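idk why but the lab printer keeps eating my pages so im just putting this in chat instead. protein + zinc ion:
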Amino acid sequence: MHFDLVTIPCLSDNYAFLLRDQDSGSVALIDAPEAGPIAARLHALGWTLNEIWLTHHHPDHIQGVPELLAKYPARVIGATADQHRLPELDLALSDGDTFQFGGHEVQVIDVSGHTLGHVAFYVSAAECVFTADSLMALGCGRLFEGTPAQMWESMQKLMRLPPATTVCSGHEYTQSNAKFALTVDPENAALISRAREIDQARADDVPTVPSTLSLELETNPFLRPFDPNIRALLGMVNATDTDVFAEIRARKDRF
Ligand code: ZN
Ligand code: FE
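predcted complex ->
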């Protein structure tokens, strides 16, 4: 591993992440829910901040940017599509674009659905993807701006990444996500045991984020609309994956 990955709890249930390339010493922050805990962690680690990568425009992901920029002259990177409602960007990118971070390639993946213009950042050399409020641990973001079809499209892009990829998502919602997941996939042994581990982790005040893509593929109902057991339970054996995904999302909204 040539990278350090640090998870920083912010606000009531947000996560920000620091990714440090060990060779160059470059540090990227992914999302800025609040400056205080992020600056404190940087200080404790003796790290500077070179880049801020923004996933989407919601205040709980960007509002720490001005205060951090006052301390660190970081390069701010985000989606071209969201440029009008993000802090000023030094680099604006679209789906499929790449940029260099400490000599490593970072891939921008449009994962619209929660918002339009939401992006994920995939760093293959670090085997991690920053998904914020698209793919989440045992869940997916609420559809504020996009359609179920768009979000399912976004999920499929992330599902094609290597299964060993670390999934760094934006919130500690996993315990309630697990309770919901069990209502649509109650016989899934991997889900049942993951739900137990999550209860234990939360009882011990341990974050359940990040997770891994392989674990999400096995247990996250939003990545499993083709699963025969889920379909049978929903009475949607012959429906399209998009329709099953939409039904799971609708049930989660009512949960
Ligand atoms: Zn959001
Ligand atoms: Fe959020």
